[in-house]
Amino acid sequence: MMSLARISLGGAVKQQYLFKLRAYANLFVSLVAVQIIALLFTTGGMVGMSGMGSEYLDLEIRFYSGAILFVFTALWIAVNAFVLTLPLSRHVDFSFVTNRLSSNLANFGFLVTAAVAGGVTVSLGSLLLRNVLYYTGGGSSLIIGANFLVRPDELLTGAAVGSLYLLLFGAAGYLAGALIQLHRSLYVLLPALVLGVLFYEAAHEQLRLLQVINFYRLEALPILFILKIVSSVLLLWSGAALLSNRTEIG
Amino acid sequence: MHYGGAGRGVYSMIFDTGGTQPIYLQISEWLEREILSHNFATDEKVYSQYQLAEMFNINPATAAKGLNILAEEGILYKKRGLGMFVSPEAGRIIREKRRKQVLHRLRELIREAELLDITESELLAMFKAAQKREKKEERV
Amino acid sequence: MNAVECRELTRYFGRTVALNDLSFAIKKNTITGLVGPNGAGKTTLLKILCGHLRKTAGDVRVFSDDPFNSLKVSVNTVFIDDHLALPATLTIFDTLEAARLFYPNWDHRLALRLFEYFSFEPRKLHKDLSKGQKSTFNMILGLSARCALTIFDEPTVGMDTAVRRDFYRALLQDYLHHPRTIIFSSHLLGEIEDILEEILLLGEGRKCLHLPVAELRGYAVGVRGPAETVEHFIADRDLFRRERFGRDKIFVAVRNSFSGEALQEAGAMGLEVFPIPAEDLCVYLTARTKGGIDDVFSED
Questions:
Q1: Domain of A233, in residue numbers
Q2: Co-location of B116 and B77 in the same domain
Q3: Mean pLDDT throughout B17-31?
Q4: Strands B76-79, B83-86: parallel, antiparallel or unpaired by DSSP?
Q5: Which pTM was predicted?
Q6: Do B17 and C194 touch (CB under 8 A)?
Q7: Chain B contacts of C31, Cβ < 8 Å?
Q8: pLDDT digit string, tens, across residues C154-188
Q9: Given an 8 Å threshold on Cβ–Cβ distance, is B61 in contact with C212?
Q10: pLDDT value at position C184?
Q11: Does any domain span residue A189?
């Protein structure tokens, strides 16, 4: 006689999370690939360049920044968060033991892992960038950096801040995905809406998007910064979890 | 049966699942034959529903139905928790039952013979001839 | 004790009704065959039972829980069909290892033995398997999970005859040693009939029949003979099928409520009486017309 098996929500989430780490291990390979491409972009082209010349002097100033590296990584996590909400990913979850809540919670756990991996690699990547530039700088170059030498604790802070931002992007991608699953037409409508707002604001020179970014960026108190990010992420996730709690696995 | 492994192949020949007879009846008839040919002695335990299910590749509930028919007819008796056993009366009951069936088949044969205008004496002659052939084959 | 209970279960997809007022119960530890033509609602029903789809109305209970979003139902249910989604990056061997962690009753020894018996290459990816191999692999998953409710929805797609037979045999063997509630939907009723205990026949989202397989064989009889004699003989019994046969004869399939004597009399009246195989009966019961495809070719 077969007795009924029992499972707690925590147990189901843990199993799903561990399963996702195994099943989606290739995403971390793609993270490294994306970052290498970002670094190539950075060392090849310049983010900003100004040249001055006179009869006696030819001056060229190049700005290198880790921004491209971060932007690429942010795109990586947002896209993958989006993919996690697609029917195919849900189907795989439901081939094993889950309900909609545990599937979402496991995805959140996976996104936290991805964000930390992204944050750490971005931080290390910018360190790598400095080294690459230093040694391949072309002889005559003089590298001026505000903080060219990075202290380990700064590296750690950089990784933490990077991870938190990535978490935010991941959560945004996840909510967008959950929204789009509601109806097929949203596949077109949602991107159109976002782009529309951006263009409108650009045209009217009132980039409220910047205000949103500044809401996080200009926060001076670390604890408040963390709180702002974490509560935003939780808000986005709750929205996504609510939206997808009635999803059918057709 | 649709198929059978090594041991089951033999029974596959006897059973037909073309749809004429419910499988549980085929099971009970097969057990009757086993008892008649002394493969089970009086008061000996017969196969359980699970053994029969495995042997014939059928659902155990179907096998149980076959066993229960024999129990209702007094051919088998139940010992609670132990299984089904061959009753002392088994041989007599089966033989009586089969005799009735033979009679029934004879009647069908007679009806068929009438349809074909076979006379009584012709039929008897055919019967004797068939019996003779059967005996000869037995000796070989 | 019932493993599954449905009361007036109804499901709409837009305006189409997939399940219509369906009420039935499935006893614990039985093998039930779910049959019916394409579009009868079999898959919809099974997906509601395992919590993948919502019901529109009525009540559905699996282990006395509403299966939608129930973890208890999920951990005690395995649902195998030919669309089973598995991670594209895991080898089939790693997929077994992953599945093992999800199901508390998982039998890894059985999984590995079946894996070996069907000569799977451990390092292959699920997507690289042929259709039949996929079905076979999914079947291994379904059996090894040892779930109290094991659902197979057309699991034999692409399997050759030998593998199908092995599958039915493996299913029965494992069921004998580890009884559980199994629901098996298939078009090949003739093949699985013997290992079933009950049969649930759906047609256009409704329940046509739900009874022990043993009773299905005697459920209907076929009668063939001169039209008038046949009509007179069957009187007003439930008619499932009527076909013309030869010049002036007909064949009918009717509910078998005849006495033994009545059936013997039929022979004397010049009628042929024979049992209707389960598979044929299911076709008759779910057909839209009483005459079948011959109606298309009939002159009148």
A1: 9-181+219-244
A2: no
A3: 78
A4: antiparallel
A5: 0.88
A6: yes
A7: 59
A8: 999 999 999 999 999 999 999 999 999 999 999 88
A9: yes
A10: 97
A11: no
The residues facing C212 across adjacent strands are C198
Tell me the residue type at C8. Answer: E
Q: Look up the ipTM and state it.
A: 0.90
The domain that holds B69 is classified in CATH as 1.10.10.10
pLDDT tier at A52 (50, 70, 90 boundaries)? low
- Sheet (strand C239-245) strand order: C239-245, C249-255, C220-226, C272-275
Q: Are residues C76 and A5 in contact, defined by beta-carbon separation less than 8 angstroms?
A: yes
Q: Which helix (H) or strand (E) holds A77?
A: helix A67-84
Q: What are the tokens at C144?
A: 């090894």
What H or E segment, with its residue span, contains residue A58?
strand A58-63
Rounded Cα–Cα distance for residues C300 and A116 (Å): 77
Give the number of other CB atoms < 10 A from CB of residue A30: 13
Task: Assess whether B73 and B98 both reside in one domain.
Answer: no
Cβ atoms of C67 and C86 within 8 Å: the answer is: no
Q: What is the pLDDT of residues A1-23, one digit of tens each?
A: 467 999 999 999 999 999 999 99
Q: How many domains does chain B have?
A: 2
C180 → closest Cβ in A2, A8, A91? A2
Residue A150, pLDDT score: 67
Name the residue of chain A whose CA is nearest to C180's CA: A2
CA distance, residue A16 to nearest chain C CA (Å): 8
Same domain for B79 and B106?
A: no
Q: Are C35 and C281 in contact (CB under 8 A)?
A: no
Block residue for tokens 């960026």: A217
B40 and B74 in a single domain? The answer is yes
Q: How far apart are CA C232 and CA A206, in angstroms?
A: 90
* The one-letter amino acid at A128: L
Mean pLDDT within C200-208: 95
